[in-house]
Every structure is written in structure tokens, then in C-alpha cells.
Amino acid sequence: MPVVYIAGPITGIPDYKEKFSKAEQRLKAEGNIVLNPTVLPAGMPYESYFPICFAMIDAAEKMYFLHGWEKSQGARFEFGHAASKRKIMMFEGET
To answer: Of 56, 32, 52, 57, nearest to 41 (Cα)?
Structure first.
């Protein structure tokens, strides 16, 4: 089964967990193993999440970007890291 990492805006998005959860359910229903960064504990410094998320991206074969990812500094960092690792990129709303 392919491993997919979900990326998208979190900071300033009140219902981000719901959006990530819906994407996770959909991706699992399609037969993927899903890595969802919103399950990480809240409260750490912003920069502390990147080494963890980058390790998750390294373990994934594919990336799934939620709507609005390009407005998120963190998701753009994740995109750059994934691109440098030549991950398959998928975007919400595309087939």
C-alpha cells in the first residue's frame, strides 16, 4: 500500500483537524497508509515540528496537499522538501 503524507494549512485555520481527518479517511478508503501531521501533540514551538514532519515525508511515497496549501508557510516548506526528494504530488480537487 502506498504511504501518503497530508500537507495543508494549519495555523489560523480553526477547523484544520476536521479537514485533515476527512482527507485521511478518503485516502485510507482508496487503500493508502496515511501520515497525518495533525496527530502530533500541540504546544511545541513551530520550528520543532519540521524535523518530525520531514521524517514523515521521507517515509511517504506521495504527498497530498489540501486546498490553500500554497498560502501556508509550513506547507510550502513541506512542498520544497518533498520536491527535493522527488515525491509524487497530489492536490485536493485534482483527479
So the answer is: 52
